[in-house]
Design goal:
Elements (H helix, E strand, L loop, with lengths): L1 H11 L1 H26 L8 H23 L6 E3 H25 L10 H7 L1 H22 L2 H30 L4 H6 L1 H39 L7 H9 E3 L6 H4 L1 H10 L2 H9 L15 H22 L4 H34 L1
Antiparallel strand pairs: 1-2
Helix pairs in contact: 2-3, 2-13, 2-14, 3-4, 3-13, 4-6, 4-9, 6-7, 6-10, 7-9, 9-15, 14-15
């Protein structure tokens, strides 16, 4: 009887979790369409190239994310090329936003005279290069069974986001240091962007460098000692080059705690980050009319989805895993709470006026 209950419990998370992921991604597609339409205005050509590429990359990631999230148990494989485009697009969104931030709100001191500071401002290029290089390694890992290829790929992701972490913190401090109310209002979306990127970099670097990479490298080195696996050939090799095998099992142990965190964050949090960055963060003209309701509703949905995912992932998890999950999830909930307070405050100010 105990064995049956344990078995049922180990799969109980799956369907509710999948339902939440589908709902989150469907809402993401709808909101992406709304943001896309709004991002076409104004049509005055100002920052047109920046806005166009942010729209394109945001749409690519959101659509591919929805496709992969919904098809995780529907098909044995998902196409690899859209996944590659999505991952490069996500890196591109963050990199482009940070590079434009340096243009819109440059450092008060002359960074060009300091080689280190000058290097820091160019680290978004390192992020994009790392993600681009990581793509063929993932393919090689699939056709060779050579696990170290996947480990190197994840390491490159870690290097990419670790490289931009100092710049993310610098930009966040820079925008938060602005005390003039009018200037702060004009840079409001850039402040949100800086907070989101900084939080993402901190959480991702913690997850990747502390919790996953040490174990991945240990396993990869053990495999190296036992000898290299044979290369796949024939039709199966072609399938593995063109597609990514999905996880069809409902068993929690087959997914694993860290893989489930990655999958949940990838197709929920990253989707919403991409949609936000589609707005092409930049200084805005102060408008007397602002609709905060949509922002508040969006933040509420993100918070509810995040709390639900944390709960579902945590049900079969061990105590130490639950603690890690709460810490990582809490770090994401902090900026959401901050945005809530800020938006509600703006609504109150508008009402008084």
């Amino acid at each position: 009887m105990t064995k049956i209950l344990t078995q049922d419990f180990s799969t109980a998370w799956a369907i509710p979790w999948y339902a939440v992921m589908v709902i989150v991604n469907v809402m993401g597609l709808v909101y992406c369409a709304v943001v896309y339409k709004r991002s076409l205005i104004p049509r005055d050509g100002k920052d047109s190239t920046y806005r166009k590429w942010m729209r394109i990359m945001g749409v690519i990631f959101t659509v591919v994310s929805a496709y992969r999230a919904i098809s995780v148990w529907a098909t044995l494989y998902t196409f690899r090329i859209p996944n590659t485009l999505a991952e490069v697009s996500f890196a591109g969104l963050i990199a482009y936003a940070m590079l434009r931030f340096n243009t819109y709100l440059p450092a008060t001191d002359d960074a060009s005279t300091n080689k280190f500071k000058s290097f820091i401002t160019k680290t978004p290029y390192i992020l994009v290069v790392c993600i681009v290089i990581a793509q063929p390694l993932d393919t090689w890992d699939n056709i060779s069974g050579f696990v170290i290829g996947g480990t190197i790929m994840e390491t490159l992701w870690g290097i990419g986001f670790l490289s931009i972490l100092p710049l993310a913190i610098i930009q966040l401090r820079r925008v938060l240091s602005i005390k003039d109310k009018e200037a702060a209002e004009r840079l409001r979306i850039m402040k949100y962007s800086a907070i989101i990127i900084a939080v993402w970099c901190v959480v991702y670097c913690m997850y990747r460098w502390i919790f996953t990479l040490p174990g991945m490298w240990a396993r990869s080195l053990d495999i190296l000692e036992s000898g290299l696996p044979p290369l796949k050939t024939g039709l199966q090799a072609i399938i593995d080059v063109l597609g990514i095998r999905t996880q069809t099992s409902l068993e929690y142990r087959d997914w694993g705690f860290y893989y489930l965190i990655w999958h949940s964050a990838y197709f929920s949090i990253l989707t919403w980050i991409s949609i936000f960055l589609m707005k092409a963060p930049r200084p805005r003209e102060i408008s007397g009319k602002r609709d905060n309701k949509q922002t508040l509703i969006t933040l509420a949905l993100i918070a509810i989805a995040l709390i639900t995912l944390i709960t579902l992932i945590g049900l079969p998890a061990d105590l130490d895993e639950i603690i890690i999950l709460i810490v990582l999830g809490g770090l994401f909930l902090v900026p959401i709470a901050y945005f809530f307070v800020w938006e509600i405050k703006c609504v109150k100010v508008k009402t008084k006026e």
